What does this fold into?
Amino acid sequence: MAVAQGKNGGKDRKNGAEKTPTEELSQKPMRRSRGRGALWGAGFVLAVLLLVAGIGVSRRSGEQLQEVTRALTHTREVLESVADISARMSEVESSARSFAISGKQSHLNPFYTAAKSVPPQVDELKHLLRSDPGSLESLTQIEPVITQHLKVMKDMVELGNRNLFRGFGQRGLTDEGSKLMEQIRDALSSMEKEQRARLAQQQAKLAAETDHVALISFAGSALAGVLVLACAMATFGAVHRRRKADEKLDRLLGSMPDGLFIVNAEGKIVSSNAQAEKLFGYSDRELQGESMALLVPERFRQTQRQYYAGYFSQRSGRMPTTTLELCGLHKDGREFPIEMSTKPLALDNGSVVTSAIRDITGRKQVEKQISKLNKELELRAVELETAYKELEAFSYSVSHDLRSPLQNIDSFSQILIEDYANRLDSDGRDYVQRLRASCQHMEEIIDALLALSNMIRSELQIEAFDLSALANTVAADLKLKNPDRLVDWVIAEGLSAEGDPQLLRVVLENLFGNAWKFTANRPRARIEFGALPQSNGARTYFVRDDGAGFDMARAASLFTPFKRLHDQSEFRGTGIGLATVQRVIQRHRGKIWAEGVVDRGATFCFTLTDDGGAPNGRNHDSTPPK
It folds into this structure.
């Protein structure tokens, strides 16, 4: 026995003095791990230092960018102030001369308002130019001229008040005012050119600073991304090594965000995770061996027992995964809504089921809020529909009620022309004619509004019809109205469509009518109607002309009611036609857009479905017809 103890003791001493091969092998990975850790640490510190340096550079670049932006804003303010002074001086001169010539008191308010605002605006401009000695000196030199011009205009107004302007001071005051105004315009124009040149330089500098900041931000983002990636890789490696050391079941239980329970064939809890304790207040030791019925109120327990018994009554315990909602019971007696997902799990010692339980209190609150919002939305929809109907009725009533006074104005204007023409001079007759024309134009607008209102209220009568035949009919009607015009109509044959023929006739009447109107200045015009295939198989219809066209920069206003891209004196219209066309197309679940070139025509494209058509830059052929 003593010998045995000695041997054991010798072995112990030997083990303490020398390392076994197993210990030696176990320490090699540890040394490699320490080396990798030191390398990762050094790389991490270097990346952080580079990121901090990048942040400092980015901050300085940002401050420089702010300085350039402030200078740019200041220059724009100076330009706006110069433009305001120029506009006010022009308004002073125009109002003063208009009053002195006509004697109408309506010109005095603009005169006094403009004259009163000029000195404060000059002071404001001097304040803005306090850091620009050259421009400030130019403004200081022209300021007495501005003051003198205001005095001359006031003298002109005073002579107009005494009806002495035409006979006494007309020539002298007019010439003096013109000379002073010319000096003011030259000085302000020179100042504006100088400021615009400075603005261009500042904009170029701003663009350069912006590129610089963007480059620095990109580099910093890339470095931060590398740093995050490195941290993520290091974290992933650590988590992976730790998971390899854990037992498979413990890893599964600990990683789930829900409360996880493993239940045997008797309905008893075998194991649970930490989240289960957070949900129900019971530790894993307290739950082991207890029935799952412990976790639900008394009224659900019998159903709970039957639920688990049904799982194991199937052959081999095979049942599909099921999810149900019920009420959970906390250890303190508090009830809360839960969602339980149960599925079978085969183990070496038999079959069990896993139940993942999630607290859905937040989701239930969200569902309750969504339900409340849906009810509010339904109520709002009803209110909007009611408001829409009331607005529609109001618009319809106003449109009709406007007719009576307009007709009275037009009738009395006609009486003035017919019965009192000899008492009116040429200007008076011209004013009356303009008054009648305005009344008639207003009636056209009212008719267009009523047509738009009726179109919106009417139900769609969808059917298949010959669109080419409809287009030929509309074109023939336009030809009858002005048979002397030379217009080449190119209407594609065999075009069909599904839609409301009456409403689509309105579309063609407006689009053809616009093409007819805006080609009126052409000695020989061309109007084309056809269809373009789209990549998805849909069809896009188009109306193309070679008339006045329009600037694409203003295309967004084409379909806005009362927004016109051409002056009324050039091309008459109500401003409702294209808005009506857009409503009809939208009611057919289609879309409409336009492409054009000034003086080279326009193309209006539309679809009648919601799955085709888009501006492609090739719909408008800007080549003039031969």
